[in-house]
Hints:
mainly beta, 4-stranded mixed beta sheet
Amino acid sequence: xxxxxxxxxxxxxxxxxxxxxxxxxxxxxxxxxxxxxxxxxxxxxxxxxxxxxxxxxxxxxxxxxxxxxxxxxxxxxxxxxxxxxxxxxxxxxxxxxxxxxxxxxxxxxxxxxxxxxxxxxxxxxxxxxxxxxxxxxxxxxxxxxxxxxxxxxxxxxxxxxxxxxxxxxxxxxxxxxxxxxxxxxxxxxxxxxxxxxxxxxxxxxxxxxxxxxxxxxxxxxxxxxxxxxxxxxxxxxxxxxxxxxxxxxxxxxxxxxxxxxxxxxxxxxxxxxxxxxxxxxxxxxxxxxxxxxxxxxxxxxxxxxxxxxxxxxxxxxxxxxxxxxxxxxxxxxxxxxxxxxxxxxxxxxxxxxxxxxxxxxxxxxxxxxxxxxxxxxxxxxxxxxxxxxxxxxxxxxxxxxxxxxxxxxxxxxxxxxxxxxxxxxxxxxxxxxxxxxxxxxxxxxxxxxxxxxxxxxxxxxxxxxxxxx
Length: 469
């Protein structure tokens, strides 16, 4: 029998706070005005996030009869309205008796117009009095008419999960369904200048407020300080056609330079980091998002609702490092490093792109290998004017430092930990300790509603196992 642990309470109540308002400009993007639409009732919420995606998304559905600002008080339809002082009683087209406080209204499709700001906050509470703060009636104080009650309720949500963004789509039928994108949505509304073929540009040149192009200036977002400090080199860049900032960052992502929305305290930011984790330098996603040494522990005996993980170990003979770099002329170099199967202590170079077409026709160069059966990891050299030999050396060093362990499948957790993509977690399984160690979260799907509160995560990369056994 498990012993009682006060840090792992067994009784929890779902609470949420959804606020919607008209954004008054980018200078004060995060302030929620007192006059805003407030909801604490929802059928389902699904939020998807990944550091490999520039913009994260959310989808919400509300049941019929959802009330804005006030909670419905159900009464018997035969009761007379004069017995319900301070309330408005009406019959909807669908035959639902609506009983509302004078400053409340049943949610309609028009209340969720595209372009409005939205903040979603989710959590558990162990205190029934906190959950009751959203109830209206019997003269009790609630979050809708009492600031102290609202502050108590927001305090209970503070340690939970939150999403900030814009409404991007609203269905025309009931029950109401809306779709949202995080604050990176504004990147789709700003155009880049035609830059042409250029070398030597950094992320700061594009996104920093003191940079050359200042592309975040009209979005309300800042370049994440940890990214700005690294001055990450882009290499050769030649966008001759018009594109949005979102499209520009998506091109970077295809080159394993990922851009994603993060909060720096109360400041909304765009962080940029490279997707390598072995021998990680300060420009890696791992270091960019490493805000603290506090690593959440996922206890399989308490936090896990469904375990769909399989520990994977990669055979070094079936691992390939695909390396890229920029030479002194601004040309992109490409080569792939893998073990020599006849002598695993040696490496071979394949799929090289540094030779001229004439040399290739003459039969010179490396072999062309189909990598479908290999685990391929990408590496980009930070060395300016890198040579082929230097790129090969760096690729071999990266290969030797690569952690060849990871997890296939997904892990579904209860909502206690309020996890976000890019964060490190520690797995703790007393029954199967072989998986215990520190992992990086690749993707998170958060679901909240009538079916409970769950987070489904993917752990594509193992940073360190507790044991090599």
